Amino acid sequence: YEKHLKILGNRNSYSKTDPDATFMRLKDDHMQNGQLKPAYNLQIGTENQFITHFDFFSNPTDFLTFKPFVNGFRERFSGNFDTVLNSVVADSGYGSEENYDFMELNEIEPFVKFPYFHKEQKKAFKNNAFIAQNLFYNSQKDYFVCPMGQHMEKTGEGSRKSDSGFISKVSYYEAKNCKGCPLKGLCYNAKGNRRIEVNHNLNRHKERVRQLLTSKEGLYHRSKRPIEPESVFGQGKSNKQYYRFRHFGKDLITMDFAIFAIAFNMGKMYNKGKITPKNSQKSADLLKINLLVLIFIQNHTINHAETTNLKLAA
Ligand code: SF4
């Protein structure tokens, strides 16, 4: 048992054939069968569809991978591009308070959606006066106003701990008397007076992110994001048939993917490098991209090149 617990570390499971792989719920197959298989959570960073960084995680939740991934990216390019990471574009799977705090601390502009970003833009959401987010807040006197006009005063503070150990501070607000309120059926279902829980720090981050994402630059990034990492994954999986690793163990699959990424980037460089009269003005951009790719290749020391026994991944 001690041996197994040592291999397990802080994971919930591991594969006997590849102890570095963790069981994860993968996409259902064509017969809609759930697929629980040993896997690695691969994260990639891209710029103009070039792979600029990648890493593997044993956690299937994306938001827990954000900090180590960004730190790895900075380490890879440290000394080469001091200003390379001044903004991050990512989907809502990475939009947590912990990650927003991290980006603020590191002066990174967060073009990172939060869960419900799209839902809150909808009319039905905006016009629903009962949603806690839509209640009027008096920041000077620290109270909310409910749809009946009652003040919801602060009753206390608490904390929440995430899976990564990050502690969020929350405040509780409660209406004074909801008894007999004609709007109660629309407002809430619980017993007693209505209580809401508010994370002011997260709300502050969300406000900034909302402004960024709806700005001209934000709209540009949002329109580009679906054709950045997604198309790299699409190209790799569908066009290049890279569905699974050919090795076992994190070191070997890192080598496996590094070779794929280098080949992928070189192919992209070749295709983008075809200068035609139409795209000749792109050559300056290309120079920067080529430099990024060369640093990516150079920083990838492959330690296991002597391994020749290929195995099918689990
Ligand atoms: S139920 Fe309570 S919180 Fe909701 S509208 Fe009525 S008085 Fe306000």
- In spatial order, strands of the major sheet run 7-8-9-10-11
Heterogens:
iron/sulfur cluster
Averaged pLDDT: 84
Radius of gyration: 24 Å
The proportion of residues in beta strands is: 15-25%
Whole-number count of domains = 2
| Topology as a string of helices (H) and strands (E) | HEEEEHEHEHEEEEHEHHHHH
Structural class: alpha+beta
Counted beta strands: 11
Backbone shape: globular
Protein architecture, described:
The chain has 314 residues and is of the alpha+beta class. It folds into two domains: 2-115 and 213-298, no CATH class; 128-201, no CATH class. It contains ten helices and eleven strands. The relative contact order is 0.12. Residues 146-148, 150, 175, 178, 181, 183-184, 187, 194 line the site of iron/sulfur cluster (SF4).
How is the secondary structure organized here?
Elements: H1 2-8, E1 22-26, E2 35-39, E3 41-47, E4 50-57, H2 66-77, E5 87-90, H3 97-105, E6 109-112, H4 123-126, E7 136-138, E8 143-145, E9 151-161, E10 167-175, H5 184-187, E11 195-198, H6 200-214, H7 216-224, H8 229-239, H9 250-273, H10 283-298
Parallel strand pairs: 5-6
Antiparallel strand pairs: 1-2, 3-4, 7-8, 8-9, 9-10, 10-11
Iron/sulfur cluster is lined by residues 146-148, 150, 175, 178, 181, 183-184, 187, 194.
Features:
single chain, alpha+beta, 11 strands, binds iron/sulfur cluster, 314 residues, disordered C terminus
Short synopsis of the structure:
The protein has 314 residues and is an alpha+beta fold. The protein has helices at 2-8, 66-77, 97-105, 123-126, 184-187, 200-214, 216-224, 229-239, 250-273, 283-298; strands spanning 22-26, 35-39, 41-47, 50-57, 87-90, 109-112, 136-138, 143-145, 151-161, 167-175, 195-198. A hairpin with a 4-residue loop joins strand 7 (136-138) and strand 8.
